[in-house]
Amino acid sequence: MTRLLILNEKQSQAEKFADYLGGMSGVFEGNPYDIVYAAGHLLQLNAPSEMVDSNLVVKYADWKNLDNFPWNPLDLNWSKKVIDSKKRYIDNIRDNLEGHDVIVIASDNDPTGEGDLLGWEIVDYLDWKKEVWRIRFKGDDSANYVIDSLHKPEKATVYEQDSQGILVKGKSRQKFDFLTGLEESRIATALAREQGYSNKGKALSIGRLQTYITCLVDEQNRARKSYVKKPFYEIRYKDANGNTFKRDYQDGDTWRFSDKNLAGQDLTNYSQDQIIVDSTAEKRKQPPKLVNLADLGKIFQKEYTTEQVTDTYQKMYDDKIVSYPRTEDNAITMDDFNELLPYADKIAAVVGVDSQLLSHKEPRKKFIIKSEDHGANRPTKLIPQSLDDIEEKYGKCGRDIYERVAKSYLAMLAEDYVYTQVKAHIESHPEFTSTINVPKEQNYKLIFNEDDLLNEDQQSENKVKNFATNANPEVYQGSNTPPTKPTLTFILNNLDKWNLGTGATKMQTISKLQGIGKENKNVIPQLKVVKGVFEVTGTGALIACLAKETYLSSGKITKRLQDILNEIKADPIKQDMVYSVATKTIEHDKAIMIKNAPFLKQDAQVKELAGDLKAIERFSGVFSPMNETVNPPVTIFDGHKTTESEQQEVLAGKPITYLIERFGKEEQHTAYLAKQTYKNKKTGKEVTRVSWKVEFPEDTDHVRGIYKPLAKEIKFKKEYAQHIFSEEEIINLLAGEEISFEGTDKQGKSFTVTGKLVEQELKEGRRKIRFWGFRINPKPVDTNVYVVITYKNGKEYHFKKTYRGHRWTPEEIKKIAAGRKQIVAFNGRNGTYRMEIKPNPNKKYNGRKYFGFDEKFVK
User: Fold this and answer.
1) Does any domain span residue 44?
2) Topo IA-type catalytic domain: which residues (predicted)?
């Protein structure tokens, strides 16, 4: 009997295991078990200064001295600490260790080694000395795969980690990214600050995948800005069916003109001519390989953000209706093929595919792999009743994802696309040629057309007609090709070229670069999207300018790293190779960034976009009262910019006075330097420093008092609608009560006001200012005209009882409150018509939100 502690990567995975094995605790084939789970990585590497000997702490904590870089990787002990927000997970695992003989690492089987690293670092941190089993389950981690993996675990001790290739690969990648990312981020931050750019006080973030993407977007947009259209003119033939015949242009050919008139003169040398067909051949094309998350990003880039696609797919995976998201595979194993094949017709019925198209039941070689990784993204045996059910649970994004993933899978069961390729030339001018592909049998393209994955600048295969008998010459105008817009498809295609990251990793990195998603709420965006086109932000402009021509801005370094990591996986004794590559990368990139740094002040784009990221202007001097050097901001927080004479006054310990416009009137302020203590918002620690202190004139426009419902002191304006609150009214307001009085509007008309004190929010540029003030009660909803509902988000809304002349029934109102769409019949001038009506609490009219409906006609 062996007592097992099964360690899953996340809660949803643990719940699946519990479902397969019969509970979170139980007995598996005579062996007692308990299931615990992490939440992704629970640990992170310590700061460099916490991983070195005491005599090296100062060096590794120093950001400013560039001579410190690159670090010596052998100085670091690579120790880790628990991520603050995940302490409860590690505590729970520790509490369950006692009484077990084996920890079973049952994290995801990532080809990068990430799952192994995630599990083993927990084992090490908890100082576990007994046996460790690693189980690897493939595909959709279904019950059969999980139970099968428990029958053949990889058994090891904590002392045998360095012999496990996949684990060493994961550790090596983590070390490379830590060294290059952290060191180059510090180098870039120091150089930017030397040039006067503080990036809002935060470090610039440099990284292998993200810096490549940021520099790619920047380079492409610069090429677009510098593009100069150069038209050219040449003779081409065209037949009555729109087929074009042209010559193969080589530099120096004299038949291409920059002057249209010259091309017109050349046209006189040609006349209508006969088309000669050279060859006719039947061609076949197999269905494309299965889509991954990045492919879904390309398909839906105009409808959904990268975060929406990845998050929605993850939720669907957690509910077992699609396969593992973070896969590198675009094919599946024979077992997976055979397992899903009996469900193909049912899947086809859900997504509206004619099952008669699924006649290719034998797998093509391109779709089958022998490895036991997760396999390509695909639907699972847990098939929804309908796409409507999918949309109700996961939204329209979920519906679209399932439909495309399912159709991508079903296409592999359809016959090849068949077309006729015809090649022809012009009889008297055989140098004019044309090749057309005439569709013959659409087959798989009726299910899934891979043209959706093409770059927008490429053209999909159109429906073409055969050649006519004759063709006529004409003057054709073309131009040099403009650089492609950096859309999501463009970025993902370039990442594919270098084989950079899994589909999920690409999408998550692009979300991070935009600062979207809960985990990226504190990230300063490097990219933004304007009408589907990616652009750099001010931070992105700084990074792109500094990192230009560095190794990390090129896909080549990731390709080189991947080769080394695969070599390390095959022979773990070579793991120190990653240190050499990291050191050479940092040495090269440091020299390049030092060379690029002076251009930050010269680059027009950096000046334009990163202007608000400049360092705070400060002055320096000895503060006489304390006899120590200080460097306060030149501009005081109330907006007054000090002069040199004022600076000398305050350094001597004297106050200064000045006039400043505030709240629409001029005030006299007094300011001076003083030693003050603040609480750091990030660390919670108290910080003491010499900084500005301002004395404001007495505020006669506001009232201060204790707001009794919250037992806190507040301040509010003592006037509303030209009415000054009386002492009694102030007492009532501070008690949280409503008051009524006669006010005067801007036109001088009197009206009755009823309201109370409310905490409110005012937007001032990017800032949100919270304040207390009197607010008039909203007008009551006329329930004779409007229906009042509590919507599914818990908020109260109202809408008219009639819509397009139709009075809502009680049953229809229930569906509206639930947020469900429904088909409603309306009476029009020409009879009854039907529409699909979907509630939308965020409809807008003239910039104002209201509860309305999205609608579309149905048959």
Assistant:
1) yes
2) 163-593
